Amino acid sequence: MIADPFSPLPRPSAVPTGFSDWRARLDRERVAPVIAVAGSKGKTSVIRAVESIFHAGGYRFASWTDRGVEIEGERQRGELGPWSRALTRLAAGGLDIAFQEVDWATVQTIGSLVSTYPVVAIANLCANSEACSLTPETNLARRALKLIKSNIAPSGRLILNADDFALSDGGDSAGDPENRYLVGISADAPVLRRHKTSGGDACWIENGSIAIRDGQRTRVVADVRELPSTHKGTIPFAVQNALMAAAIARCCGISDNLIAAGLSKHDARPESMPGSFNVFDLGSATVVVDRPMPSWFLRSSLRACANLGAGRQIRVAGPMALVATEDLSEIGRLLSRNGGVLITHGDWPAERLEQLRRGAAANMVPPIFLQAIDERTAVQQAMSMLRAKDVLLILAENPRATVMLVQRHLRRLAPSTRDDSTAAKAS
């Protein structure tokens, strides 16, 4: 137990006393035990962390992510057919719980699959970026967000990222503190502080550890520096993912001890999430494989890279076709801060490459700007440049192929320390 400085209103928590009680209530209400995880980024990472918690408890589960459907850890062929089988097994008692990744663009179809959700977790929307809030994609996300909120069961819970103000500070019927469960890095953040004062349930970081408060009871669950997925606490969004996973588990009645055990074992492999900030250690140098992304999400990846090494920051970027041209100048500036090396590759339209170059040149110390024919050549060139404490970030156009390429290079470059230096973490 830790002291709570907020003096919340006296109100009992809506968190169930145990998983069996939660399942029994859902059975009475005829609500399928399917957890929805939505957001603009990081949905699969949150689901993998939650899976680790439920796996530690010996529960049987199915998952549907952007990589397809898995039932009790086995990849299925197809999606709709296997997911229907998983829902049938849930109803018959052959599975305990299921996790569904919900994409903004496909929210319209969820009603035909699951009528209501007992728990909906929203990882993020716009990372507090004004530029992001004005995009057509965000307008779609806002409409989808309203729809998915309407699919929450009457007694269900809505888990929100309190650090994304567009998510956590809106007023609607799902805004009742009794229904909301907020997650944030700091309990002093205004949105989370108000929520706690009103008596709402929440989890946050307290002196480097995950703290959870249900009702009037606040306690520390796990030191984030001991969670493998956070790389000793240096990857902020991995810490956020762990918080979201802890909140989901608590809303299902999972105990603190089991949450700590599951998160301490969660060390997601790049094979299960290629391009989700996969971290590879090569001696004191580090290689990261991520995906191309808008500038407002790229900032988080770059901050994490800066925490992974004190040497040069080397970047590899392809044409980034899904990134808006008007955002490339800012991306070029971000990729080139503090000098370092920026290697581009592929078939860039002249206007887009010029925007990237213009942003790179806007830095006080511009980077070394190189060009390669293709991604393979660019990665090989970048890895040959690595020195102690350097960090190489690859914004991979084909993450799965790039992960395999990096792993082959690591095995070849460090055969004598293969077991240690090729160990990879994904967050």
* Strand line-up across the major sheet: 4-3-2-5-1-6-7-8-9-10-11
Shape: globular
**How large a portion of the residues is in β-strands, by DSSP E?**
15-25%
- State the name of the first-level CATH class of the largest domain: Alpha Beta
Q: What class would the helix/strand composition place it in? A: alpha/beta
Find the CATH topology of the largest domain: UDP-N-acetylmuramoyl-L-alanine:D-glutamate ligase
Mean pLDDT: 89
Secondary structure: helix percent: 25-40%
Q: Please summarize the sheet with the most strands.
A: 11 strands, mixed
> From the alpha-carbon coordinates, what is the Rg to the nearest angstrom?
22 Å
Name the CATH superfamily classification of the largest domain: Mur-like, catalytic domain
The low-confidence parts are 1-12, 171-175, 417-427
CATH architecture descriptor text of the largest domain: 3-Layer(aba) Sandwich
Number of DSSP helical runs: 15
Topology:
Elements: H1 19-29, E1 34-38, H2 43-56, E2 61-65, E3 68-71, E4 74-75, H3 80-92, E5 97-102, E6 117-122, H4 130-133, H5 136-149, E7 152-161, H6 165-168, E8 180-183, H7 190-197, E9 201-206, E10 209-214, E11 217-223, H8 236-251, H9 256-265, E12 278-282, E13 285-290, H10 295-308, E14 313-317, H11 328-335, E15 341-345, H12 350-361, E16 368-372, H13 375-385, E17 391-395, H14 399-413, H15 418-421, E18 424-426
Parallel strand pairs: 1-5, 1-6, 2-5, 6-7, 7-8, 8-9, 13-17, 14-15, 14-17, 15-16
Antiparallel strand pairs: 2-3, 3-4, 9-10, 10-11, 12-13, 12-18
Helix pairs in contact: 2-8, 2-9, 8-9, 10-11, 11-12, 13-14
